[in-house]
Specification:
The protein has 3 domains: 92 residues, 2-Layer Sandwich (Double Stranded RNA Binding Domain), CATH 3.30.160.390; 107 residues, DNA polymerase, domain 1 (Orthogonal Bundle); 178 residues, Orthogonal Bundle (hpI Integrase, Chain A). 47% of the residues lie in helices and 11% in strands. The protein has a 4-stranded antiparallel β-sheet, covered by helices on one side. Keywords: DNA integration, DNA recombination, DNA-binding.
Length: 403
């Protein structure tokens, strides 16, 4: 049995700087090895199956004297039990290396989550938004880390820099990180609670989004200013001006108008049917077209020119036009020096319909393709109130044409 040297104290060990092997006592065979370079590390000399072995216990001072003695005691217990602590440690390292080599990174998990769920999302833009926010903010911090290692410090490192300045983006990003980590947990790539969860967790560390950022509403025209705006708009040349005119006449969303196809429009029945995959609510929406809207459509080149009602200038490889960009409408409004947005025109319509007409609220909400918030009310509203909406849209067109 090795001779046990006098047990040194931690302060004494700190003074051992001469190159060589220094017994520190407290456990048989435990020594501090000092290299000529000055580097120091722990060595435990043991006999395993009658053969002397030197077992490294880590560098000093990263591994303290107390920790080294604890490791040495554990190693000797393994030997007394008939095991080999050196082989055991090597096996543990190999197992850890194998686990890490098989582990998925956060970025890999996010990519798989998007692939698994994108078929249920409304459009390719949603996929792009997911990818862009994660690529810009999350991946630089934790994209290459094993998803099993993601914890609160990494999540906060992603969110805190933008929580105060880009609050809406940060809240969406937090939700997306939470969903990716939840997916990884169900897939057994990680375990434990989700460090990106809000309730009862991040809400104790970050201020509520509503406290640090006010919701920015789309700028809208005053109701009384719209007829004059429409007169000016109708003098503007270009497909962007016609698209914006159609946005106002139909109270539709800009994206729905810019993506409109001639196949969706029945000029005879004066109906525009927007398919579910292009609607925010994911439900098909029929839009009654006023006489003014029909006249506008008949003034356009038509389906023989392009499948899009309002084609952009750029072309796809197959020769078809690209969808008109949202910036085309924004730029038009800026040139007209109008302090409003295309989407804000819907707000103006809502103000006019609610304050200047006797049309029922549910008719107005259906015209805007809004889902009714009251579930009981929504359960009874099985129809789309199409005929009533047609009268509403004709009244709107007449108002827009007023002098």
């Amino acid at each position: 049995m090795p001779k046990i040297a006098a047990a040194l104290k931690a302060t004494q060990v700190a003074t051992l700087t001469e190159p060589g092997l220094h017994s520190v006592g407290g456990m048989p065979g435990l020594a501090l090895q000092v290299a000529p370079s000055g580097a120091r590390s722990w060595i435990l000399r043991v006999k395993v199956a009658g053969r002397r072995r030197d077992m490294g216990l880590g560098g000093y001072p990263e591994v303290s004297l107390a920790q080294a003695r604890l490791q040495a005691r554990h190693a000797r217990e393994v030997i007394r039990g008939g095991g080999d602590p050196i082989e055991q440690k090597q096996a543990e390292r190999k197992a850890l290396a194998l686990k890490r080599s098989n582990a998925l990174t956060f970025e890999q998990c996010a990519s798989r989550y998007i692939d698994d769920n994108k078929s249920g999302w409304k459009n390719a833009k949603h996929v792009q938004q997911w990818t862009n926010t994660l690529t810009q903010y999350a991946y630089p911090v934790m994209g290459k880390l094993p998803v099993s290692d993601i914890d609160l410090p990494q999540v906060l490192a992603v969110l805190q820099p933008i929580w105060q300045t880009r609050t809406e983006t940060a809240t969406r990003l937090r939700s997306r990180i939470e969903l990716v980590l939840a997916w990884a947990t169900v897939r057994k790539y990680r375990s434990g609670e989700n460090p990106a969860r809000w309730r009862g967790h991040l809400d104790k560390l970050l201020p509520r989004p509503t406290k640090v950022a006010q919701v920015e509403h789309h700028a809208a025209l005053a109701v009384d200013d719209v007829p004059a705006f429409m007169r000016t708009l109708r003098t503007q040349p270009g497909i962007g001006a016609r698209a914006l005119e159609f946005v106002v006449l139909t109270a539709a969303r800009s994206g729905e108008v810019r993506g409109a196809r001639w196949s969706e429009i029945d000029l005879d029945k004066q109906v525009w049917t927007v398919p579910a995959d292009r609607m925010k609510a994911g439900k098909e929406h029929r839009v009654p077209l006023s006489e003014a809207a029909i006249l506008l459509l008949k003034s356009l080149p038509g389906p023989d020119h392009d499948i899009l009602v309002f084609p952009g200038l750029q072309r796809l490889p197959n020769g078809q036009a690209k969808t008109l960009s949202d910036m085309a409408l924004t730029a038009l409004l800026r040139r007209m020096k109008v302090a409003a947005t295309a989407h804000g025109m819907r707000s103006t319509f809502r103000d006019w319909a609610g304050e200047r007409t006797t049309h029922a609220r549910e008719v107005i909400e259906h015209a805007l393709a809004h889902l009714l918030k009251d579930k009981a009310e929504a359960s009874y509203a099985r129809g789309d109130l199409f005929d009533k909406r047609r009268r509403l849209m004709e009244d709107w067109a007449l108002f827009l044409a007023a002098n």
